[in-house]
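User: Run a structure prediction on this.
Assistant: Running it now.
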Amino acid sequence: MFVTRVLTVLVILPLFAAALLFLPQWLWALGLLPGLYLGAWEWGGLAGYRRAARLAYGLVTAGSIYLLYYIGSRVSSGPTNPEMWVFALSGVFWVAVAPFWLGGHWKTRNPVLLGAAGWIALAPMWLALVRLQAHPYVLLMFMAIVWIADTAAYLAGRQWGRHKLAPLVSPGKSWEGVAGAAFALVVYYAVLWGFGVPGARMFSPAFGLLLFAVLLALSIEGDLFESWMKRQAGVKDSGQLLPGHGGLLDRVDALTATMPAAALAFYLH
């Protein structure tokens, strides 16, 4: 399975990176829109929506945030105030709501609540990916935090994992995996800083390390939150779109929490 996951990444990542680096932002935004729709479709499945409701939910989620972006792009090349509030809403959810949802093991099948949670998880992530594409190396730096942390946590947890991180939510995750991810990110940040990679020195070393630590915590939280949604829905994967990875949500779960926070930090620094 690990080999299958790696091969899938090797196929998708170059295409994704080429689009990120070379497409104009309006085309990049349109290119990511089907992914947002598919993510919302999968979320609707986890929420227990029927087919027609899932279709409507996907269209409303994708259409509403694209409309906000389209209007904003007509007046500004960067995020507008409403868009910054969307990033802030995401931050409030992941800092003040999701931890209690996970810690209390909340079980709800309320379609409105689950639909709102899905919009907050998916729409700000899409908007952050679109807006940060204007600074492609910064976006790649932030996304690599998630990729490196996920891979390091998997390998460290598999090798040394003994103490479960959240056994009732995702039994496979361990504190040793978290430690492995943290170590890998410290090395990653040191390499970025040492080689002066574009974007790495826009923050002071202390703030940069703090931001990386916060994004690591958020990436874990995003992963756990989607795992909890799947557990409540009684499924192993959100879908079967990507070989070795499951559905689209299974691959972007950590990005849902990290990308809006990264965008907020970047544009407010």
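The chain has one domain: 2-268.
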